[in-house]
């Protein structure tokens, strides 16, 4: 982009540079602010939104709970004493104790780790697989696009809950004897397998709308290879929709993991999860409603935090909504 003062000099023959530039800058302080890109404008808009700061603060708290649960709950989340079975909330146990005498507060805090780790890994895997398939499909076109689109349609035809139940009961049924890492890996894999087609279609549509842009055509005319065009030009300009969808998807996967665990096909003991706690406490909801209320409250708050953050990012990245 040419400098305005230079353009005025060229368009006015014989004019001295200082004469044409002086009226434009007289009495006005020169700004040294650099031009911002899409992410710069988005960050400037996000800083003005209270909803963004509220959701971001809650997410940071949940991430700290998942990474360092002992900072929030020094108690034991796995072992308990039957002498404290179904005890009411007290100074020793803020949320009370479950039927096996385990500290509900400690279990709620430690339950954030499994739920958030499964959700984040599932989102990363979904974005990686679906994004790669979408870029290949949208950029190559032709029979490659048709083949990948038909494969995605097959997975689209699988109901999410039913497909997850089939996968998890096959590999994580009763008596499977899987470890904590294996159980979390199976739940993560099932979420990725059933969710990547959505990301694939989202990335494909972004690539189709971008690959014929002038700068892509110019790069291709200058001899840029396919890899350089995709990594340097297509990918940076197609990441905004994936960033928004990925943020919202973290909250959705936290809820999906809790649903599968509640149904008994997701995470299982000895893993501590909000869905497992709700499933274990449903039979005692009249005697000890806190067994269901506290993990459900943390679950809803975590899901809403990620969804609100995603909505804030979407509004900041979409010029039509500013």
TrEMBL record:
PANTHER family, per the entry: ABC TRANSPORTER PERMEASE PROTEIN (PTHR43386:SF6), OLIGOPEPTIDE TRANSPORT SYSTEM PERMEASE PROTEIN APPC (PTHR43386)
Transmembrane segments: 51-72, 116-139, 151-171, 183-203, 242-267, 287-310
Compartmental location: Cell membrane
Protein name: Peptide ABC transporter permease
CDD domains on file: TM_PBP2 (cd06261)
InterPro entries: BP-dependent_transpt_permease, MetI-like, MetI-like_sf, OppC_N
Lineage, highest ranks first: Bacteria, Bacillati, Actinomycetota, Actinomycetes, Micromonosporales
Membrane topology according to the record: Multi-pass membrane protein
């Amino acid at each position: 982009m040419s400098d305005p003062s230079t353009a005025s000099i060229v368009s006015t023959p014989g004019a001295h540079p200082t004469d044409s530039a002086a009226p434009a800058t007289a009495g006005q302080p020169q700004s040294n602010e650099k031009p911002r890109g899409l992410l710069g404008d988005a960050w400037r808009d996000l800083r003005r939104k209270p909803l963004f700061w509220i959701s971001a603060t809650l997410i940071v708290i949940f991430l700290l709970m998942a990474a360092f649960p002992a900072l929030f709950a020094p108690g034991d989340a796995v072992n308990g004493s039957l002498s404290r079975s179904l005890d009411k909330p007290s100074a020793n146990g803020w949320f009370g104790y479950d039927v096996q005498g385990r500290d509900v507060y400690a279990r709620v805090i430690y339950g954030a780790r499994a739920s958030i780790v499964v959700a984040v890994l599932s989102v990363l895997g979904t974005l990686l697989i679906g994004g790669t398939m979408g870029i290949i499909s949208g950029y190559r076109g032709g029979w490659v696009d048709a083949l990948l689109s038909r494969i995605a349609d097959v997975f689209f035809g699988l109901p999410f809950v039913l497909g997850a139940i089939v996968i998890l009961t096959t590999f994580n049924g009763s008596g499977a004897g899987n470890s904590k890492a294996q159980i979390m890996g199976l739940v993560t894999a099932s979420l990725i397998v059933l969710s990547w087609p959505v990301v694939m279609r989202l990335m494909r549509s972004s690539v189709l709308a971008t690959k014929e842009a002038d700068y892509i055509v110019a790069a291709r005319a200058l001899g840029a290879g396919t890899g350089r065009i995709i990594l340097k030009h297509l990918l940076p300009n197609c990441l905004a929709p994936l960033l928004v969808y990925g943020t919202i998807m973290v909250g959705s996967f936290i809820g999906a993991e809790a649903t599968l665990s509640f149904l008994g096909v997701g995470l299982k003991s000895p893993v501590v999860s909000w869905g497992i706690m709700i499933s274990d406490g449903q039979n005692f909801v009249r005697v000890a409603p806190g067994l269901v209320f506290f993990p459900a409250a943390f679950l809803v708050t975590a899901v809403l935090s990620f969804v609100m953050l995603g909505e804030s990012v979407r509004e900041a990245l979409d010029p039509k909504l500013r």
